[in-house]
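Internal ticket - ligand job 712, thiamine diphosphate:
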Amino acid sequence: MAETVTFKNMALAKAINESLRRALDADPKVLVMGEDVGKLGGVFRVTDGLQKDFGESRVVDTPLAESGIVGTAIGLALRGYRPVVEIQFDGFVFPAYDQIVTQLAKMHARSLGKVKMPVVVRIPYGGGIGAVEHHSESPESLFAHVAGLKVVSPSNASDAYWMMQQAIQSDDPVIFFEPKRRYWDKGDVNTEAIPGPLHKAQVVREGTDLTLVAYGPMVKLCQEVANAAAEEGRSLEVVDLRSISPLDFDAIQASVEKTRRLVVVHEAPVFFGSGAEIAARITERCFYHLEAPVLRVGGYHAPYPPARLEDEYLPGLDRVLDAVDRSLAY
Amino acid sequence: MTVESTAARKPRRSAGTRKSPSTKPELVQLLTPEGKRVKNAEYDKYVADITPEELRGLYRDMVLTRRFDAEATSLQRQGELGLWASLLGQEAAQIGSGRALRDDDYVFPTYREHGVAWCRGVDPTNLLGMFRGVNNGGWDPNGNNFHLYTIVIGSQTLHATGYAMGVAKDGADSAVIAYFGDGASSQGDVAESFTFSAVYNAPVVFFCQNNQWAISEPTERQTRVPLYQRAQGFGFPGVRVDGNDVLASLAVTKWALERARGGEGPTLVEAYTYRMGAHTTSDDPSKYRADEEREAWEAKDPILRLRRYLEASNHADEGFFAELETESEALGKRVREAVRAMPDPDRFAIFEHAYADGHALVDEERAGFAAYQASFADGEGA
Ligand SMILES: Cc1ncc(C[n+]2csc(CCOP(=O)(O)OP(=O)(O)O)c2C)c(N)n1
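stdout (structure tokens):
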């Protein structure tokens, strides 16, 4: 008998919406909280319709106070709830940074494991949408640097759907970075077949000449780069990390042992970014396999620029191809 | 059975379903929506000597500010601006408070204070750079004592407080004014600015424009007491003024500024007003509020109200209004042309001003960027 497979084609934002709906439905302890998440359905409509169907006590419009949002989510978690909170934009998480870093991240350790912190902090992040300042930043390494937090970022609708389920089920706090410029990209979501674990990277394109590692908004770009490189006869492998902390070094190592070259691509500034950690560890693990130093492509050590300059600031096709050329030239 | 115990057993009502606070707060008003001048024992003296010319000036400020705002909104629609935060409906609160200021006072705005900027003499086209995406500021804050727009909600209230602490340390008699919204009143930073300003007796006026909404959330989602009453708990006075009444906004702000100058410390002014348009051009208010609400507020329009008063008191004639109309059109045209002519920033602006002192990494990245750009130029030439 043929298996029934439920594929639905939907945008990434809609996939998160459906995922939240499923979690709210399945577990009365799950709450959705944040500024404008109720009637408006969030400024990106990710929570559209949830308050209508689950009511104001499950889908909670909060006061305009990020420290308050995360701080009260911690309290709710202490009381047995599983809050999924929304920070409206990347640049507005900092009023909550204290609560996340000094409290949320450390509660499990301080209680000797007695207290679980199943809190998900959703943050639409990254640039490329022509926004004003504080609306385009990529602060993931600031969170990955903090022990006690999981930091993840889906790159497609299917992962967005399932990683959100997994994040909500996790007893650890998860900082869930949503690539806002991919919100409207559609993909197939199989709402039955659960994909691999939250922290596993995925090879999204096989190749033999060089490995491109990315996550979130840059995965699609790296796939485009691989297509462009293929026209020049080069075979690039693309690894979607999915999780930034923990980071699946085994998957990168396996790929690099095959291709012998690695370029890491992220929107965040290169300096002290996640690429630095990847470069260092892969150099340790694959020293004798590497034909070239690990190269990184990302933002500059400068404030995120005004919209008219973001194309210069953000990694684009040409800049990644340039790094590919440099790596292959060794 | 006591009332309390019954209440305790009932399932708690969600706070979100309750209506506005029941206490009806005092609202300082000097001009009714019909344009009638009403007496106010406390605040009349702050506008007692106002001349017909000054009244016409306030009217002109509001009309031109609205014209500028409308132009910016349509420029956004035409793709010339990435975003616009309209002040439509809040002209009286901004012009009234803005015209109460002295040149040596210092202003800390949010991202919607186009009318206050106008009063400070900031060229309105400078306000558009950030919304067009060519810069993240666009003017020298010290040029007009008007700080850059602040987008992170509430942050600037602490800057204003610190600045005011500095003014007091210097023994100067200028005052500082911080603008913020009703939503911002929920932020920790705003509470901390109240604390600091109170304990250091800082010469700062907190000017909260309660325009009833923080994007989709009504004021009741931020507070259970009228906002101006917050001040009391921090140890300084708060007052609610009709924010659609330019005369009252002027008078109350003058009073608060005089307190600051006289060493009496901070004041909270809550200007009770309404955001007539969307939160920004990316917002769709039909998702969360009824049209009737806007219609009710339209009857309290700040500009219409002053016009009625000017006409009834023979302080302005047809010629004045006609001339202003021409001036208004000219402003619109100037703004439109200036925006269209606004050049994209130089690519290397990315690296400019990241530091005041040099920084080796920035220098290295700038050089790498230059070499990369040059490689294209070679390619194109070949
Ligand atoms: C710290 C922070 N959180 C969230 C936002 C997103 N945001 C921008 S404006 C706004 C509502 C502000 O409402 P209010 O303070 O009442 O001012 P208004 O826009 O109504 O003038 C929100 C939530 C932000 N800019 N900063």
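Auto-summary: Chain B touches chain A through 48 residues (CB under 8 Å). Residues 212 and 219 of chain B are 5 Å apart (CA to CA).
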